[in-house]
Amino acid sequence: MIELYTASECFFSFQDDWKDEGLLLVLDGGIFYEFIPLEEYGKPNPSRLTIKDVQLHQQYALVVSTNAGLWAYDVGDTIKFVSLTPPKIRVTGRVKHFLSLFGEHIITEEVVAAIQEAAKATNAVIQEFTAAPFLSPEKGESFHEWFVEFKTPPAEINRFQAVIDASLQQKNPYYRDLREGKLLKLPKINSISPNACREYMKAQGKLGGQNKFPNLSNDRKIADFLTNYITEL
């Protein structure tokens, strides 16, 4: 088994060495790549870097032009380079899947790593999860709210919460600054009933293997739906 990164637009990269997590970027397949730094994505005139300009471990939005007729097409994915010679990448998420109450711009890769660390530290097993913003100016509260389907609950929910918080602070300096400045409180962890996330996808008409449940959103649409499925640990 090897990992591939492919889509209806084109075949982007593949794992040429099963011992290496990086996916070798296909540079001779009729694809011209451009990479927009994630912090510039959505701005009127973002930088559009070519392969010679990219840096290691920086988040980029992927744009492609191909000999099949695509022109500066925004794929919608975020990637980072884990090697430059040869060029190898990892897919880190979707440009529309992020969480940013105050400019911290948490991405999918960061929350996946954080919940994996928390699960390992507390012997929990995760079925599915998502995180969303919570802001209440009246109560003076702002935090990231997590909704987690546990196959096996954590031995200590406070420990689970603390590991997620520490992991995000380590991976995202903007989040760390907001926590230290007391603008963000500790993330809130909600346990939700089995298949709650599946029920959300079903309600959206997106049930099936071709659709992935979003692990991040910058609004309360998914969170408000899942609130009805919160259970006691």
Structure description:
- It is built from five helices and 13 strands.
- It is α+β, with helices and mostly antiparallel strands.
- The strands form three sheets. A seven-stranded antiparallel beta sheet has the order 1-2-3-7-6-5-4, with no helix packed on it. The chain has a four-stranded mixed beta sheet with strand order 10-11-12-13.
- Strand 2 and strand 3 form a beta hairpin.
- Helix 2 (157-171) crosses helix 3 (173-180).
- The longest helix is centred in the middle third of the chain and has 15 residues, at 108-122.
- The two termini are 37 Å apart.
- The mean pLDDT is 95.
What's the structural blueprint in terms of helices and strands?
Elements: E1 4-6, E2 11-14, E3 23-25, E4 31-37, E5 60-66, E6 73-84, E7 87-94, E8 98-99, E9 106-107, H1 108-122, E10 125-136, E11 141-152, H2 157-171, H3 173-180, E12 188-192, H4 196-203, H5 221-226, E13 230-231
Parallel strand pairs: 11-12
Antiparallel strand pairs: 1-2, 2-3, 3-7, 4-5, 5-6, 6-7, 8-9, 10-11, 12-13
Helix pairs in contact: 1-2, 2-3
